[in-house]
Amino acid sequence: MNLEELIMASIAEFLDVEVHKETENLDLSSKIEIVQKRIEDKIKNGPNPELNMPNPSKGYEYEMFFSSNPNDLIKIDGWIPIQTNKLGDKEKINQYIEIGLLRKIEPVFV
Description:
Layout: H1 3-19, H2 28-44, H3 49-52, E1 60-66, E2 78-83, H4 93-98, E3 102-104
Antiparallel strand pairs: 1-2, 1-3
């Protein structure tokens, strides 16, 4: 699952959670948790699970926070993997983490 597929699958899952009778009245954080679990399950059950998740060996040691533009039809705020070599000044990584722009990707073992 490439990044575009991951984003589209996340949007579809969020919309499903948003309109489903059993989950429509949950708060946003609960809905996001449900979507995250569903996406994790899809990735784990994909044809090549080891290829679907970014990992430090592929240059994805950190995730960067992104936010939708005000005019976007669907608002998505979340985290996207970023290659460490694209962060520029390595000295500023801790500063970026402190202000919430970056976070370290934690490996998920199942």
